[in-house]
Design brief:
It contains 12 helices and 13 strands. The protein is of the alpha/beta class. Bound molecules: adenosine-5'-triphosphate (ATP) and magnesium ion.
Length: 389
């Protein structure tokens, strides 16, 4: 962008150019959201009807004063029904932005989904004339229509329960509200009974008492349980848990994870579990998606990712995990270097400057996704002999 020695330098002229470009882009994408669309225009067909969500080539960016940040840059993966999908990757790699894109909660107008499909398997849509299962494309869905899905069919549990709960309303009030929104005809008494039932389900021992309490009267673990109760109140098909246990201590962390696993089995829903912690993924997930700088660099079943990791980054992540059996005299392995600046990234492998297996081919275009098995995919030149997707 700038010819100055310092690549981060932006001249006033550049800055004006960026601003002009940003305003144009934001107006365009905001305009798209407000259009009146026929249902047909935001329905599409699923690749496999056993998936609850199929994400294909998703690109989400932020139009910032420093340029366009490509937070999610062509991400593709599926979330099958009744499964737990773990999403791992370094801080800033786009895990949260991917989940916020699914919820249509990316901070607008700066943040916009600019390309790709997020196919949501809605039972109500049925099949098309070729007997293919129909799905909503959340990336194109008007905001008004999204209200019907968000909070009911797809819900989210955030990292910090205190900031997600409203401090001035009781737990009961906030739980009942979820039901009033999604089941408008429900009576006050029925909503209260259902909310108390939910609190029991998430293992709260005095549900009637907690129902009348305010968030500050509960411990961190209890608050997170309340958040889980809220998330499952409308019998969702997908729960997105964005680092649900990072703010909790280790024992409570284990309890909450256990609860999530229980809930997933009982409620027959899918969970997209975002975490930094590979241990949590190994314990909980059926399938794993590894992200790096806005891209999926490897995905596979939990067995494939832990027993046969292929990408040098995935291998590095596993080596950098502290083990109780590790030799204490040796320093813990860390991947050298830093995540690249997500503005104006070149179209080459983003990891090559930190990679210990870097070769000549790595200077070429961004590596294609290589299919290693039916479930295992990797984007790395080391494996480009295999069949290309
Ligand atoms: N509102 C925003 N405005 C500008 N850039 C943003 C915004 N939100 C996220 N980003 C950028 O998008 C990229 C991805 O962010 P994201 O929050 O998805 O990371 P993450 O993988 O969830 O990280 P962490 O593990 O720390 O939660 C980062 O480079 C971040 O700076
Ligand atoms: Mg995050």
């Amino acid at each position: 962008m700038a010819n100055n020695k310092n690549s981060n330098y932006i001249s006033i002229r550049d800055s004006r150019k960026i601003l002009k470009y940003n305003i144009k882009q934001m107006k365009y994408y905001e305009g798209l959201k407000k259009r009146k669309l026929d249902v047909k225009e935001y329905t599409t067909v699923l690749k496999n009807e056993n998936n609850i969500i199929e994400i294909e080539n998703l690109k989400t960016c932020f139009f910032t004063d420093n340029g366009t940040v490509m937070s999610v840059n062509g991400v593709s993966f599926d979330i099958p029904k009744n499964k737990i999908i773990g999403v791992v990757g370094e801080s800033g790699c786009g895990k949260s932005v991917t989940s916020l894109s699914i919820m249509q909660l990316v901070q607008a107008p700066q943040g916009q989904v600019i390309e790709g499909e997020i196919r949501f398997n809605a039972d109500s849509l049925g099949y098309d004339e070729n007997n293919q299962k129909l799905a909503y494309d959340i990336a194109k869905m008007p905001t008004k229509e999204m209200y019907k899905i968000r909070g009911k069919d797809i819900t989210m549990i955030f990292q910090e329960p205190m900031t997600s709960l409203n401090p001035v309303f009781t737990i009961g009030y906030q739980l009942d509200e979820v039901l009033f929104i999604h089941t408008p005809n429900i009576t006050k008494e029925a909503a209260k009974a259902h909310s108390i039932e939910m609190l029991k389900k998430v293992g709260i021992s005095m549900p009637e008492h907690v129902y009348k309490s305010y968030p500050h009267e509960l411990s961190g673990g209890m608050r997170q349980r309340v958040m889980i109760a809220m998330a499952i109140a409308g019998s969702p098909k997908l729960v997105i848990a964005d680092e649900p246990t990072t703010a909790l201590d280790v024992t409570i962390q284990a309890q909450i994870l256990e609860l999530l696993r229980d809930i997933q089995k009982k409620e027959q829903c899918s969970i997209m579990l975002i975490t930094h912690d590979l241990g949590v993924i190994a314990e909980m997930a059926d399938e794993v998606v590894v992200m790096y700088a806005g891209r999926v660099i490897e995905r596979g079943t939990v067995h494939e990712i832990f027993h046969n990791p292929l990408h040098p980054y995935t291998k590095g992540l596993q080596k950098s995990k502290p083990l109780i059996t590790s030799d204490k005299s040796e320093p813990l392995y860390s991947i050298p270097g830093q995540v690249p600046n997500p503005i104006n990234l070149p179209n080459t492998c983003y990891f090559k400057n930190r990679c210990n297996k870097v070769c000549e081919k790595c200077s070429g275009d961004y590596p294609k996704t290589i299919k290693v098995s039916d479930t295992h995919y990797v984007s790395c030149y080391l494996y480009d002999e295999s069949e290309v997707e």
